[in-house]
Specification:
10 helices; Rossmann fold; alpha/beta; binds ligand F7E; 2 domains; 343 residues; UDP-galactose 4-epimerase, domain 1; four-stranded mixed sheet
């Protein structure tokens, strides 16, 4: 039985990855967790009695703890989903972002090189590495032009992964994952913020309660959104090719934040009218109740205005395809949040 270490298992991607691996392989999965004073295991509680899944203690920012785990376990695969992944937050805590998203990757690579060189390594890369894009859609050849401390840290990690792959002949890859969302997305990310807030607004409207107004920043930003669950197969395929290579995973479709909001309002059956523009834009219900407004507090010091991925190489060479489209993703997220809040 092969051994796979997955970091970030309490988050969206790590927990979906564990489910994918349990369903599609016979391997043993070690989920790396960091002790916190308040436990955050909601996304993996249902896996607690799974004999092929075991939690191990490891802190990515503690090189020794990581090295010891690699020495003791001798893993066949190491999948790193642990990160400071909130782009907006990376301006507030750039050093912690750099330590977790770049330095920690170097520690993993060093541990693998020294103590388990046949271990295959996947590091989570991001479309944020393309940043200020020069053409659309972006494929594997697009230059790295990050716009945030987060994007810069992911670019540094990408170079380290390549240098270690080429210098030491490691199987080490870093896919470019465009935005991927779902019912386990953190509430700060724009898609989940919208699905959760609109579900709350729907419940308040139906019960004549005070409406919790949704406030967003740049609603003209365009993103390429997919379902996180569809990406897990792509990650696993990337780790199991004849030779290591980085691929883009994306939907190839671009939508604005505004479109995501309006599609969610459609799912909730809330008709609205818009007033004002730019910093002063607001949405009201047809009987005049305020439900949404632009709040410049959520603007970023630098924005990536549009991202759209070209995943044709992953489709052609690995046979990867996605299953959920934009409307399906919005519906799934809204319905899940509505059910969660009315349970
Ligand atoms: O922002 C705009 C915001 O925070 C999307 C991470 O997984 O994907 C994610 O990064 C867009 C931006 O995701 C609000 O300005 C407007 O243009 O949901 P987000 P992100 O920054 O694209 C990439 C691929 C990753 O790798 C990252 O780890 O939405 N926006 N108003 C807002 N964003 C937020 N969060 N909150 C707002 O109120």
């Amino acid at each position: 039985m092969k051994k796979i270490i997955v970091t970030g298992v309490t988050g969206q991607d790590g927990s979906h990855m564990v489910e994918y691996l349990l369903k599609n392989t016979d391997h043993k999965i070690y989920g790396a967790v960091r002790r916190l004073s308040v436990k955050n295991h909601e996304n993996i509680l249902h896996l607690e009695n799974e004999p092929r899944f075991e939690l191990i203690n490891m802190d990515l920012n503690d090189a020794h703890s990581m090295r010891d785990v690699v020495i003791d376990l001798q893993p066949d695969y190491f999948i790193n989903f642990a990160a400071q992944s909130f782009v907006a937050g990376s301006w507030d805590y750039p050093i912690q972002t750099w330590d977790t998203d770049s330095n920690a990757v170097l520690h993993i690579l060093e541990s693998i090189r020294r103590f388990a060189p046949s271990c295959r390594f996947y590091n989570a890369g991001s479309s944020e590495e393309f940043g200020d894009v020069i053409c659309s859609p972006q494929d594997e050849k697009h230059p790295l032009r990050p716009q945030s401390p987060y994007g810069a840290a992911k670019c540094a990690a990408r170079h380290l992964v390549r240098v270690y792959r080429e210098s030491y002949d490691l199987y080490a890859v870093q896919g470019w994952l465009f935005n991927h969302e779902g019912v386990r997305r953190g509430l700060d990310f724009v898609t989940r913020k919208i699905s959760h807030s609109i579900a709350k607004i729907k419940i308040a409207l139906d019960s004549n309660k005070t409406i919790p107004i949704l406030k967003l920043g740049n609603i003209e930003a365009q993103r390429d959104w997919s379902d996180a669950e569809d990406f897990m197969e792509g990650v696993w395929l990337m780790l199991n090719q004849d030779a290591p290579k980085n691929y883009v995973l994306a939907s190839g479709e671009m939508h604005t934040v505004r479109e995501f909001l309006e599609e969610t309002l459609k799912c909730a059956n809330i008709e609205f009218k818009s007033e004002g523009s730019e910093d002063n834009e607001k949405y009201y219900t047809l009987d005049g109740q305020l439900i949404f407004e632009v709040d410049p507090k959520f603007y970023r010091p630098a924005e990536v205005h549009e991202l759209c991925g070209d995943c044709s190489l992953a489709e052609k060479e690995m046979g990867w395809t996605r299953k959920t489209d934009f409307a399906g993703l919005v519906k799934k997220m809204y319905e899940s949040d509505y059910a969660l809040l009315t349970r």
